[in-house]
């Protein structure tokens, strides 16, 4: 996380990282938060954008199991 710049996200499906420029999120989330996010490329804007919803860390395995179904 880079305060007021962006986030480096780890995709739990593919184990790949993606850098997202999102200033507001750097004030809402902290390192190791688990997010349900859709990362998209926006035309005319530098870097990926994302829509995210925070999820409880204690439910990580349950959430992944449900999503896999």
Characterization of the model:
With 69 residues, this protein is α+β, with helices and mostly antiparallel strands. The chain contains two helices and four strands. The strands form two sheets. Strands 1-2 form a two-stranded antiparallel sheet. It has a two-stranded antiparallel ribbon with strand order 3-4. The chain starts with 5 loop residues before the first strand and ends with a helix. The model has no long low-confidence stretch (mean pLDDT 76).
Share of helix, binned: 10-25%
- Structural class label: alpha+beta
- Cα end-to-end separation: 31 Å
- Average pLDDT confidence is 76
Strand content: 35-45%
* Extended strand count: 4
What characteristic shape results from the CA principal axes?
globular
The gyration radius over C-alpha positions equals 12 Å
Give the assembly state of these chains: single chain
Task: Report strand order across the widest sheet.
Answer: 1-2
Low-confidence stretches: none
Task: List the helices and strands in order.
Answer: EEHEEH
Main pleated sheet: 2 strands, antiparallel
Number of helices, counting only DSSP H or I runs of 4 residues or more:
2
């Amino acid at each position: 996380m880079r305060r007021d710049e962006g986030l480096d996200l780890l995709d739990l499906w593919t184990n790949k990282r993606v850098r997202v420029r999102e200033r507001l999120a750097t004030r809402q989330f902290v390192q190791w938060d688990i997010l349900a996010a859709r990362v998209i490329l926006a035309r005319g804007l530098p870097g990926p954008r994302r829509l995210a919803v925070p999820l409880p860390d204690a439910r990580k395995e349950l959430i992944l199991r449900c999503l896999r179904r």
